[in-house]
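Let's practice the habit of predicting before peeking. Look at the sequence and jot down your guess about where helices and strands might fall. Then scroll down.
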Amino acid sequence: MTDSFIEAPTPEEVVTLAQAKFPGRITVRKTAVRRVSLTCDRDIIHPLCKYIHDVLNFEQASSVCGVDWVDHMQVVYHLSNYFNGVMIEINVDVPNDDPHIDSVALIWEGADWHERETYELFGIIFDGHPKLERLLTPQNYEFFPFRKSYKLRGQE
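Done guessing? Here is the structure:
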């Protein structure tokens, strides 16, 4: 069976289709009117996002950002469908000792700078990114200022 293109899936259809495509790999945190919140393992983020883009018609990565939970990092994606205003939020945990995750910048070009900013501020490495480098801080800067372990100059 091939996947059929769906122009404006409802939140319920998003959940049903994504779970059928990736059985046992996606956890639904909650659904609401025009909102779906999911978690998944980092090893399926690229194929999941490719499916969400190509089949479920989510045209934009509205944001890709990082969160430092001290014991691990997290990447949060907000994906938008313009036809019906549905937004998917995907949370993916990334271990501190291996802060790698696949890039989605080749799926949504708008994710390019979001991933670069997340790399610059949190040190999360987006594998396969076309130009993963710092935007504002010097290239040889050794710190990631949004990590909770980062201490400002003069702090103890």
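How did you do? Residues 11-127 form a domain with the Beta Polymerase; domain 2 fold (CATH 3.30.460.80).
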